Structures are given as structure tokens and as C-alpha cells.
Amino acid sequence: MTPTSFTLAQATDIAEDFDDLIGTKIKVSPELVWKIDGVFVCPFNEDDKKMFAEFYQNSGDENMSIDFYKGDEYDVIIFAFNVEDKNEYTVIPIRDFIDFRGINYNFPE
């Protein structure tokens, strides 16, 4: 099933529901550990999502990083960086994260 976008209000509520993840770590392997830096509202489109992540990596400011976006379709991502190299980051869509972790969460429709 293809995920659908959220409204800005829905995405904001979802991001707030998961903000307790900030500062926690995701151990991928003994050599690779990600630290969650933020749970962010971002554009839904994959290209715009990548642009948001790049802007955030460079600025550290989530609000400034989304200023370019003029659309009305949103998603929520987890932004995490490698604890050994803060220049290396990953973006995990919130739906993928909860599926992987087996978290029961009812997204708005």
C-alpha cells in the first residue's frame, strides 16, 4: 500500500508524538550506531524530502530547512547521524520506523 501524505497539522501532531525519540540511539551493527537528532515535518515528495535533509544537515535549523517548500503535502521523518561521524546521516520515514520497531500507531487518514 502506497503511503499518503499528511496535512501540516497532522504531520506536526505525529512529529510531536515521537519527539521523545530525540537523543536516543539506533544500533544497526556493532560498528554503526545512529543518534536521533530530530523528528521533523518535511515535504512528502522524495526529492523535496532529500533537499530538506541536506538543508538541515548544513544548517541544523528545521524551520529554515523547510522554507523552500511551498506545497501542502507533508511527511514525518526521523533524522539521525552516525555517532562516529556527524557528517554521515540517515533519514528514516516515520512509517518505516514504526514498522521496523513493531510500534502500534494509528496514523490519521
Outline the biggest β-sheet.
4 strands, antiparallel
Report helical residue fraction. Answer: 25-40%
What would you report as the Rg, rounded to the nearest angstrom? Answer: 14 Å
The N- and C-terminal alpha carbons lie at a distance of 13 Å
Beta-strand portion reads: 25-35%
- SS element count, helices: 4
Gross morphology: globular
User: What is the spatial order of strands in the main beta sheet?
Assistant: 1-2-3-4
Mean pLDDT: 93
User: How many domains is the backbone divided into?
Assistant: 1
E-strand count: 4
Query: Structural class of the secondary structure composition?
Result: alpha+beta
Order of helices and strands: HEEHHEEH
The residue ranges in which pLDDT falls below 50 over 5 or more consecutive positions are none
How is this fold's topology laid out?
Elements: H1 8-17, E1 25-29, E2 32-43, H2 46-59, H3 62-65, E3 74-82, E4 85-93, H4 94-101
Antiparallel strand pairs: 1-2, 2-3, 3-4
Report on this structure.
- The protein has helices at 8-17, 46-59, 62-65, 94-101, and strands at 25-29, 32-43, 74-82, 85-93.
- The chain has one domain (8-101).
- The mean pLDDT is 93.
- The chain is globular, with a radius of gyration of 14 Å.
- Strands 1-2-3-4 form a 4-stranded antiparallel sheet.
- The chain is 33% helix and 32% strand.
- It is of the alpha+beta class and 109 residues long.
- The longest helix has 14 residues, at 46-59.
